[in-house]
What we know:
The chain is an alpha+beta fold. It has 2 helices and 4 strands; from the N terminus they run βαββαβ. The chain starts with a strand and ends with a strand.
Amino acid sequence: MSKYELCVVxxxxxxxxxxxxxxEKVKELISRFGGTVTNVDDWGKKRFAFEVMKMKExxxxxxxxxxxxxxxxxxxxxxxxxxxxxxxxCVKQNDA
Length: 96
C-alpha cells in the first residue's frame, strides 16, 4: 500500500449539507477501491488566483489515504465527473 493525497476543490455556491455529502462520496470512492482514509484536512473557503468556470472561490479539502497503486486512477476517473468538483489533484506522498 502506498500513501496518497487527494486535493478536492468544491463549488462555493452549494449548501453545507450538500458539500458534506460530496465529501462523503469522495471518501466512499476511496474505500470502494480498497483505500483507507487516514486524514481529512478542511482548509475552508479560499479565493482562486484566477476565475475557474466563472467562479472566484471554492472549498478546499485535502484527503490523505493509503491505497494500492491502481486505486488513484480509478478514483480520479470518478471524481472528474462529479458535478460540484471544480478541481482535483491526486499525488503520491514520499515515504520519507
